[in-house]
Amino acid sequence: MSVAGSYDCVTKSPMGDQTSVLTVNVDGDSWTGENAGQMGTLEITDGKVDGNTLTWTMDMKVPMPMKLECEATVDGDSLTGTVNAGAFGKMAMTGTKKA
To answer: Cys-Cys with 41: which of 5, 36, 75, 81 at CB 3.0–4.6 Å?
Structure first.
């Protein structure tokens, strides 16, 4: 099973549900991609793959500069994880793989 692909995601943020499309391009035990949503597109940095677990960081610019530390597990077509937004704490992230 490959974790590569695009996922329709929802992140439970303090500003309400944020929808986005997370694109995962796997290369061995690392990955690149982007998370495109209502606040713009964030490039994936430091993407790592460990089995069906993804870890990565994103540098958010809007509404304020912040480094987001993320982790998610892929189970079939479902993605479940967290986005750690520093002082704002961890936000739940869920996603469904696009066909």
So the answer is: 36
